[in-house]
Structures are given as structure tokens and as C-alpha cells.
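Worked Example 4.2. Consider the chain below.
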Amino acid sequence: MKTIKKISILALLITINFYYSQKTWLPVITSFEPEVKTFMALNTSNTIWIKTVSKNIGYYTAKGKKVTEGNKLVLYKVDCSNRKLGILQIAVYDVNGKILDSTKFEDYNVEMDYVIPDTVGEIYLDTYCNLPLEE
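Applying the procedure from the previous section yields the following C-alpha cells:
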């Protein structure tokens, strides 16, 4: 019985190690816009990538706001205990992978905001904060 338990624990540890060593995009269900696909990937112990795939990704140029089909990646800093999120980086790509817009913020300059209830921000925070993360 002890051998089976040890093998089970070892298999679990190998699975967790593989999961955390890969950039695995987990689907995030947001019922706000069903035609928009949203995914989450762990980055560091307190940051996550959120990828949004849509036919209507908005971004800004010198001429104003534009909309295209593509992906938007946002790197969020996460504070589970205080229920806050802050944006570290944003990148917008078209369907061919061409970068259309990119913005970065220094970690010390990130404005951490409380998540508003019943928003996608709360969904991102709750999804991340409820993952079985390694300490």
C-alpha cells in the first residue's frame, strides 16, 4: 500500500512540475462575450498572462483607435490577499502574428487596483488565486 501511495505522489509531482514548466494556456470562461476566447498562462509567482482572441481586438495608433481580428496579450501583476490586479504589459497581434501595439510598465510603476465584483477582472483573479500553485 505504501508503494502505491509513493508512486501516486511521485506521478502527481511529475505532472505538477511539467505543468509549471510549460506555457500552458488554460481556458478562462467569461460569459460576458461568448464570441471572445480567453486564456490564462502562469508567468511568475505573482504574474499571469491573459490572451484574448477575437475578431474585434481594439488597439491605438497615432490616428486613434483601430479594431482588428487577432490576439491581445496582457501581463497582469496579481495580489490575491488584497484582491488587486495591475497591468505590466500589453501586446496586440493581428491574425498573422504581426505586432500592432505594445506597451510596458515598470514593476515599481504598476498601479494595483481592487477588482470590481462581477467583472472579467474578478474572474481572472479568482481563477488564478484558486489554482494549486507551488509555494
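Confidence is low (pLDDT under 50) at residues 1-21. The first helix runs from residue 2 to 21. Compare this with Example 4.1 before moving on.
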